[in-house]
TrEMBL record:
InterPro entries xrefs: CybS, SQR/QFR_C/D
Gene3D superfamilies hit by this protein: Fumarate reductase/succinate dehydrogenase, transmembrane subunit
A Pfam short name: CybS
Localization per Swiss-Prot or TrEMBL: Mitochondrion inner membrane
GO cellular component: mitochondrial inner membrane; respiratory chain complex II (succinate dehydrogenase)
Protein family membership: Belongs to the CybS family.
Protein source organism: Daphnia pulex
UniProt keywords, alphabetically: Electron transport, Heme, Iron, Membrane, Metal-binding, Mitochondrion, Mitochondrion inner membrane, Transit peptide, Transmembrane, Transmembrane helix, Transport, Tricarboxylic acid cycle
BP GO terms, sorted: mitochondrial electron transport, succinate to ubiquinone; tricarboxylic acid cycle
Function: Membrane-anchoring subunit of succinate dehydrogenase (SDH) that is involved in complex II of the mitochondrial electron transport chain and is responsible for transferring electrons from succinate to ubiquinone (coenzyme Q).
Name of the protein this chain belongs to: Succinate dehydrogenase [ubiquinone] cytochrome b small subunit
Topology term for the membrane: Multi-pass membrane protein
Binding residues for a ubiquinone: 127
Xref: PANTHER family: SUCCINATE DEHYDROGENASE (PTHR13337), SUCCINATE DEHYDROGENASE [UBIQUINONE] CYTOCHROME B SMALL SUBUNIT, MITOCHONDRIAL (PTHR13337:SF2)
């Protein structure tokens, strides 16, 4: 704990490249071994050593150990996609009202459902961890999120196909 507090105090002094590496979940295993990297050398964690850290960097050995960790790379790509979709929704929603069409309704349905799915999945994965609720209940929670997402997308597609569509329904609701 003291090691983490010291690293957090010095985090503002770390370069951006090192911050991205330190955010890598693959380095979590190294912190359990009570070692840090100081000027590209492995240093055992101690109170005196951590308080004197000025230029905290991650050495090449840590980079080599993280190269085999593929799950962190997958989560990084997913996080980037999530942020990209959220950013794309900003102009997409007004554009759907300015240029209403079936294509825009379907694009909104896919975008809203995907955005909600990723948000719900993150909540379930964060709060229904296998260590807390057990592996079966954690998998069930994720399966329920997938079921809700499929049901939502199917419902929105059905509404777009057989009724007025998302944008026209909102416009009709506003007229009330």
């Amino acid at each position: 704990m003291a090691a983490m507090m010291s690293v957090c105090r010095n985090f503002g002094k770390v370069g951006l490249h090192s911050r991205l590496i330190l955010g890598n979940p693959c380095l979590a295993a190294l912190s359990k071994k009570n070692i840090i990297f100081y000027e590209n050398k492995i240093v055992p964690v101690s109170q005196n050593a951590l308080h004197s850290v000025k230029n905290f960097t991650v050495g090449p050995k840590a980079l080599a150990e993280t190269a085999s960790c593929k799950s962190a790379d997958d989560h990084t790509k997913l996080w980037t996609l999530e942020r990209g979709l959220a950013l794309a929704l900003v102009p997409l929603v007004p554009a759907a009202f300015l240029f209403p069409s079936a294509a825009m309704d379907y694009l909104l349905a896919i975008s809203f459902t995907l955005h909600a799915h990723w948000g719900l999945e993150t909540i379930v994965v964060d709060y229904m961890r296998p260590k807390v609720v057990g592996p079966a209940l954690a998998k069930l929670g994720v399966a329920v999120v997938y079921g809700i997402s499929v049901f939502t997308l199917g419902g929105l597609f059905y509404f777009n196909y057989s009724d007025v569509g998302i944008v026209n329904a909102i416009k009709m609701f506003w007229k009330l």
